[in-house]
């Protein structure tokens, strides 16, 4: 489950990473809080082994194992995911490349069809691999495209947070009516995000359960997203994590998606 910062920055692991930032003593506006969440430093490279649990409303769990690689260059993040198990999703590969000034590129390789398919912008509200995150949830949302209001401060577990309401300036550019983000005042990581539909009914919640430091970065080792309308949820747990070890640029390509080889 990009904080740069959208629905919790992003559902994906590589895009939740953040460095602790001191809290100023003066009052902040909602826009300033969200800008700080957007601007936190991220590692240049990340490689993780991740357990993904899909949990239906009856509590039945489907466990998936995957690897994820991230690379940041010129403040733009590229992410690759490879599903390792179970057999139903094994060797499915996904690539997202952030672009400056134009829509991001997304592709998915489907082994059953032996084909790589580009994800169109109009598919942004579709579920990503049966999870509770949509393709748009994986995107970095620029601070300037929303109006942000600082509602106040609120505790989320042990975290003292800024509570910010964000509403899209252009309603057609967001699948949500608005979002409430709870930004930890120490790390500026969103530890909770509540999402509301166009009728202003609560529809999803993103939570960070375990936030720890590694190599100077704040890492959400366990996070989950719940669809409040269906009762389905998705939990992500980082099992292994390597930061700032160089990764070949060839990995972040459609050639790798097709072959699985660098």
Write up this protein.
- By secondary structure, this protein is mostly beta strands.
- It has a single domain, classed as Lipoprotein localisation LolA/LolB/LppX (outer membrane lipoprotein receptor (LolB), chain A, Clam), CATH 2.50.20.10.
- It is 6% helix and 46% strand.
- It has helices at 30-39, 254-259; strands spanning 18-19, 45-55, 61-73, 76-85, 93-97, 105-110, 115-118, 146-156, 159-168, 178-184, 190-196, 202-214, 217-227, 233-243.
Quick overview of this protein structure:
The chain is mainly beta. The protein has helices spanning about 30-40, 255-260; strands spanning about 20, 45-55, 60-75, 75-85, 95, 105-110, 115-120, 145-155, 160-170, 180-185, 190-195, 200-215, 215-225, 235-245.
Q: Give the DSSP E fraction (strand runs of 2 or more residues).
A: over 45%
CATH topology: outer membrane lipoprotein receptor (LolB), chain A
The multimeric state of the shown protein is: single chain
* Total helical segments: 2
Low-confidence stretches: 1-11, 14-26
The CATH architecture: Clam
Give the domain tally: 1
What pattern of helices and strands is seen along the backbone? EHEEEEEEEEEEEEEH
Distance between the termini: 26 Å
By DSSP, the count of extended strands is 14
Q: Give the fraction of residues assigned to helices.
A: under 10%
Domain Uncharacterized protein TP-0789: 78-258
Signal peptide: 1-27
Keywords: Signal
Index terms:
TP_0789-like, 14 strands, signal, about 260 residues, outer membrane lipoprotein receptor (LolB), chain A, globular, about 5% helix, mainly beta, 14-stranded antiparallel sheet, single chain, 2 helices
